[in-house]
């Protein structure tokens, strides 16, 4: 039976790969996007996760058109990198509000329907940087690390209602962003990865769909790295 799935930031990159993977499983998939033209084949809803009003409106539309959200993938995120002593309050707040507070907003809103149904899957898309740290990414690393504590707290609160909350922590992934890196920088990054290559978006998507499936029904509060071994021990 098709489930109602929502992937935030599902219009490109990892988010789009996740949305496509759920669609291939036969699920009804909604995506949120903030700008540009969304891909076809999904219920695409314009939504800025930094706005509580936008989030409420998006969920109302999704619930009307494909039913209450049964699987939430909180993927929407941004970067605004600079070294600590150069980082302004705006750069800090913008990243935290989108990546961490935005994920809180959509998880809280999705939990309403999941509690009524007494089942649900919540997956937060974090990053190896959340555990490993990264110079120039104090704001981003803090936001991605925060998702772990949030997921584990939700897992404890909602587990008795059949709702799981987990975290997927990708490493370097072949996306438009990594394609713009210089060869020197790519070589430096690759040298740190035991598997010697970047992940594909589909490999991240496969982990997310597994967590949302029956086979992972007893997995909650977990942090699953998809990083080629980059973050081992963290």
From TrEMBL:
UniProt entry tagged with the keyword Oxidoreductase: yes
UniProt keyword Oxidoreductase, yes or no: yes
SMART domains for this protein: PKS_KR
Domain Ketoreductase: 3-176
Alphabetical keyword list: Oxidoreductase
GO MF annotations, alphabetized: 3-oxoacyl-[acyl-carrier-protein] reductase (NADPH) activity
Domain of life: Bacteria
EC identifiers of the protein: 1.1.1.100
Coiled-coil zones: none
Family to which this protein belongs: Belongs to the short-chain dehydrogenases/reductases (SDR) family.
Cited PANTHER family: 3-OXOACYL-[ACYL-CARRIER-PROTEIN] REDUCTASE, CHLOROPLASTIC, SHORT-CHAIN DEHYDROGENASES/REDUCTASES FAMILY MEMBER
NCBIfam families: PRK12826.1-2
Name of the featured protein: 3-oxoacyl-[acyl-carrier protein] reductase
């Amino acid at each position: 039976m098709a489930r109602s799935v929502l992937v935030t930031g599902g219009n490109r990159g990892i988010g789009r790969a996740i949305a496509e993977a759920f669609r291939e499983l036969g699920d009804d998939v909604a995506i949120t996007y903030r700008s540009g033209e969304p891909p076809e084949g999904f219920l695409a809803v314009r939504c800025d996760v930094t706005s509580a009003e936008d989030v409420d409106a998006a969920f109302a539309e999704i619930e009307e058109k494909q039913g209450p959200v049964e699987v939430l993938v909180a993927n929407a995120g941004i970067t605004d990198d600079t070294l600590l002593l150069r980082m302004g309050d705006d750069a800090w707040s913008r990243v935290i509000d989108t990546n961490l507070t935005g994920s809180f907003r959509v998880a809280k809103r999705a939990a309403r329907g999941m509690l009524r149904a007494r089942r649900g899957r919540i997956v937060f898309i974090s990053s190896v940087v959340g555990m490993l740290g990264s110079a120039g990414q104090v704001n981003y690393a803090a936001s991605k690390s925060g998702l772990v504590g949030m997921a584990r707290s939700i897992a404890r609160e909602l587990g008795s209602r059949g709702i799981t909350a987990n975290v997927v922590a990708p490493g370097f992934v072949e996306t438009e962003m990594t394609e713009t890196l210089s060869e020197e920088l790519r070589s430096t990054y690759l040298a740190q990865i035991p598997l010697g290559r970047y992940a594909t978006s589909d490999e991240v998507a496969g982990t997310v769909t597994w967590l949302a499936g029956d086979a992972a029904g007893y997995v909650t509060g977990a942090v699953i790295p998809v990083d080629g071994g980059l973050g081992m021990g963290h």
